[in-house]
Design goal:
single chain; five-stranded antiparallel beta sheet; four-stranded antiparallel beta sheet; 3 helices; 11 strands; 29% helix
């Protein structure tokens, strides 16, 4: 019985080790494919990523909340999706993921968080990634280009890619300066910069 238990443990350990090795090689393969994906995309200098409208803040039962509408847009300013809700805190921030391949620092809006939010916040990735394509590219973008952008986004979002810190980063944009009732647009470019401007 003890021998059988030992055999099962060894088989389980071998399977786990094999899975880790497989995951490593898949990640390395994706890493090298990202250079080609970024290289095939046209360089975009400045384009709208999202529009933000802060409705206001409330204080109830010792909890601060801020309500807002977040409109995700493609590179031509067309609305893809909207998130309308409240977050804990007096203000919100946007967390971007970025990839740096083939001379292009491409930003992906990843999360909205309240200033007092201890959780992950609102995940934005499902709002513009579907069927293996990123809807952030608008206008005349080809399906191949949308798939290339999707590959880069998914690589940035995967937790194991933290080991590629030179190529994948997180960037937080604080929106505490946004006034209530005023529309603000966040502009990004393939230079990795984000600018927040009132409409």
């Amino acid at each position: 019985m003890r021998r059988k238990y030992t055999i099962i443990l060894k088989a389980g350990a071998a399977a786990a080790a094999g899975l880790v090795v497989l995951l490593f090689f898949v990640t390395i393969s994706d890493f090298f494919l990202c250079f080609g994906s970024a290289g095939r995309l046209p360089f975009l200098k400045s384009y709208p990523v999202m529009t933000v409208l802060i409705y206001g803040t409330t204080y109830d039962a010792g909890i601060n909340t801020v309500s807002a509408r977040i409109m995700l847009t493609d590179t031509h300013g067309k609305e893809i999706a909207a998130v309308e809700r409240s977050w804990k805190g007096w203000s919100i921030s946007v967390e971007f993921l970025s990839t740096d391949f083939s001379g292009k620092k491409i930003l992906f809006p990843a999360r909205i968080k309240g200033s007092d939010d201890r959780r992950q916040g609102t995940n934005l990735l499902p709002y513009y990634n579907e069927n293996g394509e990123s809807l952030l590219l608008g206008g005349g973008a080809t399906r191949s280009e949308r798939r290339d952008l999707y590959r880069l986004c998914m690589f940035a979002a995967h937790r194991i890619t933290a080991i590629f810190s030179k190529f994948v980063r997180r960037q937080k944009i604080d929106l505490s300066g946004c006034r209530t009732g005023v529309y603000y647009t966040l502009y990004a470019g393939f230079d990795g910069q984000v600018v927040v401007l009132p409409d």
